[in-house]
Amino acid sequence: MSDDVRNLKTALSAISEHWQPHRLTSVNDYDVKVVKLQGEFVWHTHPDTDELFLVVQGELTIQLRDRDVVLGPNDVFVVPKGVEHCPKADQEVHAILFEPQGTVNTGDAGGDRTSELRELD
Predict the structure, then answer these.
(1) Which domains does the chain have, with CATH numbers?
(2) According to the UniProt entry, which residue ranges have a biased composition of type Basic and acidic residues (predicted)?
(3) Phi and psi dihedrals of 56, rounded to 5?
């Protein structure tokens, strides 16, 4: 990863597709990803890692099997490893994800929503 300064607003404005995370930068063995979310994703788990969500803009609901967690701007929530979850957003959400390099967006669910991590230009 480059040692250039990255601007969060510029990075998010470059993303046109929902549910397609882009690497903003890396810290040790972790990726800091930016993503736009809208609609409902897939139920999945990450068996070996926690997943951090930081909402920049909008309202994101993290559905868990026993409750819903609602995040607004500047809210942070960590989904513990192995916990099944399904993010959803009625309106477009801009978010930051922090997770180990190589973490797949659909976790153990796979399917057509699985995305290769994209690099920002």
Answers:
(1) 8-103 (2.60.120.10)
(2) 110-121
(3) -95, -40
Helices (H) and strands (E) in the chain, counts: 1, 8
Dist CA 14 CA 16 (whole Å): 6
Structure tokens given for 52: 């951090």
* Per-residue pLDDT reduced to its tens digit, 56-87: 999 999 999 999 999 999 999 999 999 999 99
pTM above 0.85? Answer: yes
Q: Taking a C-beta distance cutoff of 8 angstroms, is the pair 40, 19 a contact?
A: no
44: which 2 tokens?
């999945």
Report the alpha-carbon distance of residue 90 to residue 74 in Å, rounded: 18
CB 23 within 8 A of CB 120: yes
Name the token pair of 58.
């909008």
Sequence letter at residue 31: D
